[in-house]
């Protein structure tokens, strides 16, 4: 197994910048304001021939006993216990603070090797800047600049010194479904992930907007592997006031585009909002396979449940390809059905469609219902082949196909979907018009 390195420290010392440097990504939100990272954030890194798993954590206040900072501290402590190595990030420009001393006191009691990374030392005398951090009692400090990459290689080389090189290249790793959990704030996304994992991996806190970043988590359910992506809640545009939440909306939309399957979580105890429909539309336009989970179904009477179903059926008619499930993430009810639909949706999104079968379905559809005439022309679809996956793309060749109306295009989509049982994924049909070699004569 790959070694795990946890990055800990108080807020705004550069942990997320270092995380992005180690994972060669921009997966963690970085901005000049404290408190951006709240949950544990996992990413794959590699230094030389050694791979590792990096964990970015929120601003750590070990003695906090209230609100979200207490939840963040609990997440950080859990990351510390998960890690093989801990990198304690401090700010070389500010020097030692009382909070740094509190964190160091906790880390000295942990049975894990700890390396002190004195960050933001670019343009400064490294020896002078790092000298005072010997006071923390955690060994020789490492002067680094996460933003510029200075000193990072030697820091990680020391952290990984006791671990062997990777036996094989990561490119041969098994492909597993990437499943994004999306929805408005406070609909129960993090509670759903915790229920699926069987542990409190992400903060489930009764305050809208708790999750600000997209958190990737690998897990197994039964004999199948998945990579879950917990995303920040998406609010209506007019209610996105903070720069932090603007970042979160971008991360959510990026997570949807990067996923294979999206579980759209709705709140059964709230009215279906325009934002729910807009988010569903974005998922469909992105071509992502989709499963809709209507959460908080427990505690509702028969009348409210019936009204909820009517409202959802009316607002989401355009999601005729998706499966809908009424669940209680808090009680763990309906989750098996959701994951079965995720498996079906992933299989449909990644399906390989043989050209002979596609062409036969096309011919049968045309025989059953010919395309309508356009003036003196009648479009003539001739054959079809697959042009891509995730979502499945079917390319149809023929004459005058640019005159086929959208209604007939939808008819063909339904024919292909029914024949290949493509439940759970959007399907795209593209027309390629044959060129007449005599048209320019």
UniProtKB/TrEMBL annotation:
The entry's function note states: GTPase that plays an essential role in the late steps of ribosome biogenesis.
A GO BP term, please?
A: ribosome biogenesis
**Record-level Gene Ontology MF annotations:** GTP binding; ribosome binding
Q: Which organism was this protein described from? A: Fluviibacter phosphoraccumulans
Q: Which PROSITE patterns match?
A: G_ENGA
Which keywords does the record carry?
GTP-binding, Nucleotide-binding, Repeat, Ribosome biogenesis
Q: SMART domains under this entry?
A: AAA
Task: Indicate which residues the UniProt annotation says bind GTP 2.
Answer: 183-190, 230-234, 295-298
HAMAP family reported in the protein's UniProt record: GTPase_Der
**Its family?**
Belongs to the TRAFAC class TrmE-Era-EngA-EngB-Septin-like GTPase superfamily. EngA (Der) GTPase family.
Question: What name does UniProt use for this protein?
Answer: GTPase Der
Report the SUPFAM superfamilies cross-referenced here: P-loop containing nucleoside triphosphate hydrolases
Q: How does it assemble?
A: Associates with the 50S ribosomal subunit.
Q: Which domain of life is it from?
A: Bacteria
Q: Which residues bind GTP 1?
A: 9-16, 56-60, 119-122
């Amino acid at each position: 197994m790959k070694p795990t390195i946890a990055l800990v420290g108080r807020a705004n010392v550069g942990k997320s910048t270092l995380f992005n440097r180690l994972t060669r990504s921009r997966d963690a939100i970085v901005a000049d304001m404290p408190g951006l990272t709240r949950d544990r954030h996992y990413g794959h890194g590699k230094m030389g021939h050694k791979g590792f798993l990096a964990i970015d954590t929120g601003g750590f206040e070990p003695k906090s006993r209230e609100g979200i900072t207490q939840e963040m501290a609990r997440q950080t402590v859990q990351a510390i216990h998960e890690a093989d190595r801990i990198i304690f990030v401090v700010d070389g420009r500010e020097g030692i603070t009382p909070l740094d001393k509190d964190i160091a006191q906790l880390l000295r009691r942990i049975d894990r090797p700890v390396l002190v990374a004195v960050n933001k030392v670019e343009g400064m005398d490294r020896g002078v800047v790092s000298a005072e951090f010997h006071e923390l009692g955690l060994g020789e400090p490492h002067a680094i600049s996460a933003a510029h990459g200075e000193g990072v290689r030697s820091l990680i080389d020391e952290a990984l010194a006791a671990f062997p090189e990777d036996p094989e290249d990561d490119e041969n790793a098994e492909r597993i479904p990437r499943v994004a959990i999306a929805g408005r704030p406070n609909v129960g996304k993090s509670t759903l992930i915790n229920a699926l994992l069987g542990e409190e991996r992400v903060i489930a806190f009764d305050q809208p907007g708790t999750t600000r970043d997209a958190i990737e988590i690998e897990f197994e359910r039964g004999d199948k592997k998945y990579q879950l992506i917990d995303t920040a809640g998406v609010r209506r545009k007019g209610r996105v006031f903070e720069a932090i939440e603007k970042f979160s909306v971008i991360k959510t939309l990026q997570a949807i585009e990067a996923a294979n399957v999206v579980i759209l979580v709705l709140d059964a105890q709230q009215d279906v909002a325009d934002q729910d429909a807009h988010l569903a539309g974005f998922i469909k336009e992105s071509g992502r396979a989709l499963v809709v989970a209507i959460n908080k179904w427990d505690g509702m009477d028969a009348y409210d449940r019936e009204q909820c179903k009517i409202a959802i059926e009316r607002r989401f008619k355009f999601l005729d390809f998706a499966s809908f499930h009424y669940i209680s993430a808090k009680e763990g009810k309906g989750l098996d059905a959701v994951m079965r639909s995720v498996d079906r949706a992933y299989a449909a999104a990644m399906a390989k469609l043989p050209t002979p079968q596609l062409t036969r379905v096309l011919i049968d559809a045309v025989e059953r219902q010919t395309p309508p005439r356009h003036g003196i022309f009648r479009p003539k679809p001739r054959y079809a082949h697959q042009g891509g996956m995730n979502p499945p793309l079917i390319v149809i060749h023929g004459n005058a196909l640019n005159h086929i109306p959208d209604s007939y295009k939808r008819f063909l989509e339904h024919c292909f979907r029914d024949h290949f049982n493509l439940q759970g994924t959007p399907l795209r049909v593209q027309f390629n018009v044959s060129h007449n070699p005599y048209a320019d004569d």
